[in-house]
From TrEMBL:
GO molecular function, one term: deoxyribonuclease II activity
Assigned protein family: Belongs to the DNase II family.
InterPro entries, sorted: DNase_II
Protein name, UniProt field: Deoxyribonuclease II
Domain of life: Eukaryota
Signal peptide range in chain numbering: 1-29
Length: 370
């Protein structure tokens, strides 16, 4: 059964009941700013994965039966979904569009080792826009310099992209969460005559919201026709696991995760009932095959996961945070949706992963012994 959204759940691990903000589904225009697919068509959302060692990518939108490999490459400045979407801002009169670019590693190689570990781009007109969440450092280029496509220095590792078309009210609500995450904004423009979007303006100004409390986290559910996007964000001061202490507890389900594992102190897989008191299985993916390309997690910089427990919720999450101990002190988030076609594709793409077992051939950590 797919999860039915819209109900507040008890976040028992954090000792708090989260308020669920249900926003009205906007009536958005096809001629406004939004996510545009490879064929130049406006879409509610688009998900894509860049394959390692190049600029080829696989992408999915809700009108497709399954993800497919694109005929374009991400290094193009004029073709493909990224160029189509971003050039609405890069090529526009700056008095008619607004944008906020944030990344913990800026295109000018300025790096931030504290605060938010979050990468994204808001682009919008006076009525609607898109939010592009992604995993690529130093990307995209400053709007003021024009859009050159994905630079060659970012070809090495796999990456992910999530684009959602939304109204300004939802975008403003989302900006409030990203304020909590302590995101690093590197370029922005919001025309003075645009509507009252105070959180976006605060984010654009470099404002951040981290009160130092132990429960600085935020959950919002954004409805869009038949799809809900659940956004989970934490501040650096929260100091807990985004996935194990927030996402998995909210959904009450097991997950397997693909995140950057080349850093210092990557987290092992956690099994429900272990000595650390984890409530759900949280395992690492080790090998993937997307399209015809097979690769290890060490070749991948994307950050996503799927539900794997008996509840059959078919959840897919994409976001900012790696499963590394140091990331508990960084701000960031993840966005989850229930989509059977996307979930099935990713589930089938997993070639090898850690596993947990309840009995039989288990080691001291509850992992399966091959």
């Amino acid at each position: 059964m797919l999860r039915q959204p819209g109900c507040p759940l008890l976040l028992a691990a954090a000792g708090a009941c989260l308020a669920l903000a249900l926003l009205s589904a906007p009536a958005l225009a096809d001629n406004g700013v939004g996510c545009i697919n490879d064929d130049g068509m406006y879409r509610d959302f688009i998900v894509a994965w860049k394959l390692p060692d190049g600029a080829e990518y696989v992408y999915f939108d809700p009108y497709m039966q399954a993800p497919q490999k694109s005929q374009y490459t991400l290094d193009s400045s004029t073709e493909g979904f990224l160029a189509n979407t971003l050039n609405q801002v890069y090529s526009a009169d700056k008095g008619k569009v607004g944008y906020v670019q944030y990344n913990d590693e800026w295109p000018d190689d300025h790096k931030h080792g504290t605060g938010g570990h979050a990468k994204g781009f808001f682009g919008f007109d006076e009525n609607q826009g898109f939010w592009l969440q992604h995993s690529v450092p130093r990307f995209p280029e400053f709007v003021s310099k024009g859009y050159p496509g994905l630079p060659e220095e970012e070809f090495t590792y796999g990456q992910h992209f999530l684009c959602i078309t939304m109204g300004l009210n939802d975008m403003n609500s989302l900006a409030n969460q990203i304020l909590t995450a302590y995101a690093w904004v590197y370029e922005q423009n919001i025309p003075e005559d645009f509507p009252a979007i105070q959180n976006l303006r605060l984010l654009a100004s470099g404002e951040r919201d981290d009160n130092g409390g132990s429960n600085t986290f935020s959950f919002t559910s954004i409805p869009f026709w038949n799809t809900y996007f659940d956004t989970f964000y934490k501040a650096p001061s929260w100091g807990k696991y985004l996935y194990e202490d927030f996402v998995e507890v909210q959904y009450q389900d097991d997950f397997t995760w693909e995140t950057w594992m080349n850093g210092i102190n990557p987290d092992p897989s956690f099994c429900a009932g272990d000595s650390d008191g984890h409530l759900y299985n949280s395992t690492n993916i080790r090998v993937l095959k997307i399209g015809d390309t097979k690769f290890k997690e060490t070749q991948d910089h994307s950050k996503w996961g799927i539900s794997t427990g008996p509840r059959n919720q078919r959840l897919v999450c994409l976001g900012d945070i790696n499963r590394q101990e140091s990331q508990n002190k960084r701000g960031g988030g993840t966005t989850c949706l229930a989509n059977s076609a996307l979930w099935q594709y990713l589930s089938s793409a997993i070639q090898d992963q850690d596993c947990c077992c309840d009995r039989g051939s288990c080691n001291a950590y509850g992992w399966c012994v091959n």
